[in-house]
Queue: 2 jobs
Job 1
Amino acid sequence: MTTPPETSFEVSDLNVYYGHVHVLQDVSFRMGTEPLGMVGRNGMGKSTLVKAIAGFIPVRSGSISFEGRDLANKQPYQITRAGIAHVPQGRRIFPSLTVHEHLTMVGARKSDRWTVPAIYDLFPRLAERKRNGGAELSGGEQQMLAIGRALLSNPRLLVMDEPSEGLAPAVVDHLAEVLRGVVSEGQAVLLIEQNLRFATELCDRILVMVNGRIAADLPASEIAGDAEVQNKYLGVV
Amino acid sequence: MDQFLLIALNGLTLAGVYFLVASGLTLIFGLMRVITMAHGTSYLLGGYLGYVIARETGNWFLGAIGGAILVGLLGLLIHQVLIRRFQDDDMRVALITLGVSLIGTDLMLAVFGGTATQVPVPGDVQVASVSIPFIGPYPLLRLLVLLIAVVVGVALTLFITRTRFGSVVRAGVDDSQMTAATGVNVRVVFAIIFVLGSALAGLAGVVGGTLFPLLPGQDGVYLLYSLVVVIVGGMGSITGAAIGAVLVGLVSQFSLVYAPTYSLVLTFALMVVVLAVRPQGIMGRAV
């Protein structure tokens, strides 16, 4: 395992259960400010990991620590306030709120890097849809909004769960381009993806999850060009 | 024709009281996904407190404000002591609040007795009437109740749709977990809404107790009607509560005149029809 230069986020020996099902088994990894991707087939426990990090589901044992604080089993709002923001699978936009209300409810300060106008600069499409309700947005617009909403808490780690899911290839390319810009500013990102190309475009280091364990920790270049590795971990068996 | 309009106006003023009770319940129900069975008790207690304050001070408005504030404070106590730790267990919250309502009902019977009382208003307001075209003289008091309901409804709507806290409340009704993930301490929001909902029930008790007698048993009646209003209108929606209250008020008044035997049945028939056609309620969102 390569040791990142600056370790700020560390998951160690994490065990999570759904009822009696042992979904995450002794998951451990560390990351610093470099973007980290995690890929794996459906049902391998990737989303469970994200939910455990976000505080949506309880952790049986192990720790999730960020900047030296243990965040396992903390309330979701405490985790967000500790500096970890969450772009959930399925986007989970609020149907009753307009685009603008989604952004203003987070309450970013004027001195922050990410303010409501900064999000409109990042995603001009959202500015055009400002007064539209969350339920009226296309999938791509919803994803932009979910990312904007997460960025507005000005996180030091952005956790994204399948942001490319269900989006047209052109929209995915656009998102990748915007996110590359965000990452180049030094924004730490943990990206959970099924779309390997999207993950390798954004992250230099990729973890592979198989059956609730981290099965491999590889440079993106290695996994991107190796059909055998892809087939072993991601192919449909 | 005259009678038809008179009944309609009676239905609307009754709807004003139903709306005041149900607006608090719909916020609590929609946001916290728990049913507070003590909501009718808050109504009756608010009425009695308003009665005592208005009688002692001779000022109806002090009674209304006092009833709302005191019941709101009691709601805060109930939420913090009894509900907060069981928040995720809706059945337990329903049972706890049912217990609170049973105890509250008996305590009120002991303190205020079993005879009907009414919140006093100055004598000239009590008997004043306004002449309305096609209807003739109509009690001013009933129109004032309708006015209060409209003012409260508009204020609540502005609060929920125009403020940042209102955005948070609507987001919480949609998806409270995701709301928490944006950094909002949802439990604090729940507590504020529970207090606000209780205070609205208290205010409704004073307003309703001015038009209609305050009696043991009224708590159950208003809990039932406000539940019907919330189910018909859709939980979590102030507009839905207004529409539901108007429908329930009109149906109950018209059926009282034209089909008195079936009055209660028709009110529930309204609920059944709405549930059959639109299970989430008229303004509710499909879950």
Job 2
Amino acid sequence: MLKNAILTLLSLAIAIGLGGYSVWYALNAQDGVGAIRIGQWTAFPEVGTLNADPYSKARVAREGVLALGQAEGLAFVAERDDAGEPLKRECAYTIEGGYPTARFWTLYAADQSLGVIDTGKPRQSALQSYEVLRRPDNSVVISVGSRPSPGNWLLTGGSGKMYFVLTFYDTPIASSTGLSDVTLPRILKAGCNA
Amino acid sequence: MRSLLHALILGLLGAGIVHIVVLFLVPEFSERDAWSRLAMASDLYKMTRLDAEAGGAPVVKSVDPLFYAAACRFDLSDGLVRIRAPGDVPFWSASVYDRSGHNIYSFNDHNANGEKLDAVVLTPAQMIDVRRDLPEDLQGAIFVEAPIEEGIFVVRAFVPDESWKPIVSRFLEQSACELQDY
């Protein structure tokens, strides 16, 4: 009798504990179903639409996100550099390469919640395509770090994990047909302030 | 030993079922979704700033730092809702979301008449009524047919640099979200 009760409790504990935990884990993982990866950049074109999978629907509800619509834009998030190392706020990076067609784009350094990182300085940790300097072949080189640098400089600071969020506005790549031959800039580590 | 194994397998099966059930219940019972957050911040038919610039923590997070945004909640069972904003900004875009935060329709300034934000959200049934006799002042508006009742309308506007901040702020503060008689 007691043995049966304990076994029943055990099954219930496994069912509820593991079931609940696995949902929590799946919702917190950055990667997910329906992701499109280009280099180190990940986008979720279907997030926030009625076609989204149950996992992104739950994530949208839990985090209170209002995702960009197709006519608005498409956001890419990077959490690793080209060598596969996680991005760190204490490191300096170079983001270089060409960008796909869009009316304009914005790039910012984000913390875990994908909000812009707070450097405590008046300069925002964000850049946009109207203000960047371009090279003759129309590509852009951006230095990321806490020390000012010539050319395009994206200010970061502090320590811990960092993400880059690159958003294209009014762009044909937001409709899925345009995503096939898109290339995005590379993220190269320039050095770390250990 | 057999019965322990039995209990473990049963537990794992149960975990699978609980996983699926919880996953589908999260959107139903979330009190942190965009609608609930907006409801805590303001009433229906009231444009509310979403970015932190207006003071306090951002109502709905993850807005591009180079963007300002405002949103209003509406209920189409009360009638049509019309959203207007005056002024010129470098770029604006707008989206209609349903009660649970799914993007139903989006457009940007290039889709609008004279790049002015003037949109009417209505249900297909209301659309039939309005088509019959289109009021004069709705001629230039964008009609968004949405098969929903409660929803959220979001306007986002681009702030290229510091000097645009007051202009874009004014654009959003003067935007109106009101029930429309027809």
